[in-house]
Automatic annotation (TrEMBL):
Region named Disordered: 633-656
Gene Ontology cellular-component terms listed: Golgi apparatus
Protein name: Golgin candidate 6
UniProt superkingdom: Eukaryota
Main localization, broad class: Golgi
InterPro entries referenced in this protein's UniProt entry, alphabetically: ARM-like (IPR011989), ARM-type_fold (IPR016024), Vesicle_P115 (IPR024095), Vesicle_Uso1_P115_head (IPR006953)
Entry keyword annotation includes Ribosomal protein: no
The UniProt record lists the keyword Isomerase: no
Residues covered by the Vesicle tethering protein Uso1/P115-like head domain: 373-687
A Pfam family that the UniProt record links to this protein: Uso1_p115_head
Keywords: Coiled coil, Golgi apparatus
Subcellular location: Golgi apparatus
Length: 756
């Protein structure tokens, strides 16, 4: 009673003044009195119709009804089951009291009668049990309104309703029985079950025990698979609720129903060129189901990895790759959201799964005679697509394919055979006849003809996957030499040196107004830098090739100090310089590790240089990689928005040179960020070691200090003088180093001497 009293007080405040409150309150009260105390049945039915009408139209009436009406109508439902018209009217009125009135707009902080009424009704003793009992009534509308009423309660008071249903014997079973009812009833019950199973594990278990998987796929078949309406979406949402982070339910699905009914939903029926919004949502829903199966279960579940591996194996055995390739690669008329999801899940299927990798490598697409390997087609998507999201999704396939797969990397790298300049720049229509390597090299050098580095940086990202942790591939690609665009520009040059040229070109791509000519500039440099960082890692021959051109180090030193470059670009340039120290095996003067450290000290300063690492780690790109958020579940409320993928707004990025391009958050994953972090610690330690113990420039050999036979006194004195001058220079150099170290220590203490 206390709760109701407070609620009645709220009614008065909402109505505004005493007269208004009295009028509304008394009208609702009179109707309730006629319903509970009326003599004539027809008068009572009329009163309930009037009450339902006023509650539907007036927020004030909703509040007044909530304060006093629930006990009256619940009594009708308990005691007057034989009067179907009264029961229908009572259910409709209750439903109206729980539904917000859309046209009545008020302040955001205004009291919401529908929410308050839901809370009050869910607290009424025995109300949920009463509603569930109504599901056994023969009247269609009674069952229909009851299900809608339960759904409204669940939407506004989910926890209380879930607890109440669980406490009622056979409560869930009654709802499950509704799935076998007439179509409209079935659909309402299905929607209610999707809400009930979103988070309630106990309800999920009961629903699965009641054989829901078979019912779900039976309904999907009746509705026409992906071509079906919103009912198919509800079925898939319910299925996803049951298998999300639940390995045991996934195993049960796999061993009872199998994955064939699931995969059949991916088959494109009817017009494969027509994708309605509902068809798109249905496809995204079943793709989410596949994603959940690939995840395998909760992270803490010890059987997660084995379950994931088994799911991957069975899915590929059931030809899911064929359908994903059709949706993601061959169906370029499919919505971008569907193509991207299909491509991502191809990557998930092959990562750390040798048999699935082999299956993908053996796939061919197209029709005779225009057929080509699936990997070639995926590479073409990367090089040609106008969607950044699609580029990232397709690039992920190569990352997954190459991860811990040296044989696969070698296979792809073996096709990298330099072609004459005329072939590398042949019309793109002829790509169908190109090998994987020829197409990749074409992408790497395409900027020479149109001045756009976007294609080049995409190809560079693919190349980085081929080289990752594979010394043989790194050295093989080092031997690649490309023809100059024009004979007058010189002879062939190594691919690495060409990539450094493109890196420098990216920073100079400015339009007449001083702005960058394309937002591609903002991510071209970081992606090319990423390629070079991976290439030089643990590969002394790559470092030697990089240092063969003296301007390379000079350019990196300038890039590290460039105030207009982003923190990510400056940091990656600093890492690349560090690799030229720690993986440098040359003893040639000017190129050895000591010379590189000297150049860093003189041109940048060690304190400033090490600071670039810290700034990079604090940048949005590296921070976002550390805190990647899981994808949102697809539900009725967000399905339409998730079906539309919008790429990064170029207008927002082209004018913000100080900020990293949002695309980089997707490209620089946690694995790469951790890899760079490990390099940093090694670089700091090695540079401090070299700087603290410089290479001796003068080898003191006592025998050489003696006058040789035949050497005149003047020549001997001259030689000793030169020796002493060298020693003096070396002493001055050491003193200078000590002064610099002292200055750095005074500024920052010992922070950068200690590896992170």
């Amino acid at each position: 009673m206390d709760l109701v009293s407070k609620y009645q007080g709220v009614v008065g405040r909402v109505f505004g003044n005493e007269n208004s409150s009295s009028n509304e309150d008394s009208y609702v009260e009179r109707l309730l009195d006629r319903i509970s105390n009326g003599v004539l049945a027809e008068d009572r039915r009329t009163a309930i119709v009037e009450l339902q009408s006023v509650v539907t139209e007036s927020r004030a009436a909703q509040l007044a009804f909530g304060a006093m009406g629930f006990p009256v109508l619940l009594t009708v439902l308990k005691e007057e089951r034989d009067d179907v018209e009264m029961v229908r009217g009572a259910l409709e009125t209750l439903l109206s009291a729980l539904n917000p009135i859309e046209h009545a707009k008020g302040p955001k902080n205004e009291i919401q009668p529908a929410l308050m009424n839901s809370d009050l009704l869910s607290r009424e003793v025995g109300s949920i049990s009463l509603f569930l009992s109504l599901l056994s009534e023969e009247d269609f509308y009674v069952r229909y309104y009851t299900l809608q009423l339960l759904t409204a309660l669940l939407t506004n008071s989910p926890n209380r309703l879930q607890e109440a249903i669980l406490s009622i014997p056979r409560g869930i079973t009654r709802l499950m029985d509704m799935l076998m009812d007439r179509e409209v009833i079935r659909n309402e019950a299905l929607l209610l079950l999707t809400y009930l199973t979103r988070e309630a594990e106990e309800i999920q278990k009961i629903v699965v025990f009641e054989g829901v998987f078979e019912k779900i796929f039976s309904i999907i078949r009746e509705e026409g698979g992906s071509e079906g309406g919103v009912v198919v979406q509800d079925c898939l949402e319910l299925l996803n609720n049951l298998i999300r982070n639940n390995a045991s339910h996934q195993v049960l699905l796999r061993e009872t129903m199998g994955f064939d009914p699931l995969i059949s939903i991916l088959k494109l029926r009817g017009s494969t060129y027509k994708f309605t919004q509902q068809k798109t949502i249905n496809l995204l829903s079943v793709l989410e189901t596949i994603n959940l199966l690939l995840n395998g279960g909760q992270e803490a579940d010890p059987g997660k990895d084995n379950n994931s591996l088994t799911n991957k194996t069975v899915l590929v055995q059931k030809k899911v790759l064929d359908h994903l390739l059709m949706l993601g690669v061959e169906s370029q008329w499919a919505p971008v959201a569907v193509r991207c999801a299909s491509l991502r899940f191809i990557g998930d299927l092959v990562v750390s799964h040798p048999n699935n990798r082999d299956a993908l490598a053996s796939k061919v697409l197209g029709e005779e005679p225009q057929v080509e390997p699936a990997l070639n087609s995926i590479l073409r998507v990367i090089l040609r697509t106008a969607s950044m999201q699609e580029f990232v999704a397709a690039d992920y396939i190569f990352k997954s394919f190459c991860e811990k797969n040296p044989d696969g990397q070698t296979m792809l790298a073996s096709t990298l055979i330099p072609q004459p300049h005329s072939i590398n720049h042949a019309p793109r229509d002829e790509e169908i006849n190109m090998s994987f390597g020829s197409m990749l090299l074409q992408g790497l050098t395409w900027s020479e003809s149109d001045g756009d580095l976007e294609t080049c940086c995409r190809a560079a990202s693919v190349l980085s996957h081929l080289l990752k942790d594979n010394i043989q591939c790194k050295e093989r690609v080092l031997r690649l030499e490309l023809e100059a665009p024009m004979p007058s520009l010189g002879g062939p040059e190594p691919l690495m040196q060409r990539m450094v040229k493109y890196l420098a070109l990216a920073s100079s791509m400015k339009s007449k107004d001083g702005k960058t000519s394309s937002s591609g500039y903002l991510y071209s440099q970081p992606i090319i830098l990423k390629l070079l960082v991976i290439w030089l890692s643990d590969c002394p021959s790559a470092v030697q090739c990089f240092l063969d051109s003296r301007p390379h180090v000079t350019y990196l030193l300038e890039l590290v100090s460039n105030p207009t470059a982003t923190a990510c670009i400056r940091g990656l340039a600093a890492v690349l310089l560090g690799e030229c120290v720690i993986y440098n095996k040359t003893t040639e003067s000017g190129k050895d590790p000591f010379s590189i450290v000297d150049a860093i000290s003189q041109k940048v300063g060690l304190t400033s240089y090490f600071l670039k690492f810290d700034e990079m780690q604090k940048s949005s790109v590296f921070n976002s990689a550390k805190s990647a958020m899981p994808r949102k579940s697809l539900t009725r409320s967000n399905a339409a928005s998730m079906a539309e993928i919008e790429d990064v707004d170029e207008k927002e990025t082209t004018d913000q040179k100080s900020e990293d391009h949002p695309l980089l958050v997707l490209m620089f994953d946690l694995q790469f960020v951790s890899f760079v972090k490990g390099l940093e610690a090694n670089i700091r330690e090695q540079i401090v070691e070299i700087y603290s113990h410089p290479k001796s420039q003068v080898a003191v050999v006592p025998a050489e200090l003696e006058q040789t036979s035949g050497e005149s006194d003047g020549e001997y004195i001259k030689r000793l003088k030169i020796f002493v001058e060298k020693q003096c220079h070396e002493i001055q150099d050491i003193l200078s180093r000590n002064a610099t170290l002292a200055e750095d220590l005074a500024k920052t203490g010992w922070e950068w001497f200690v590896p992170d």
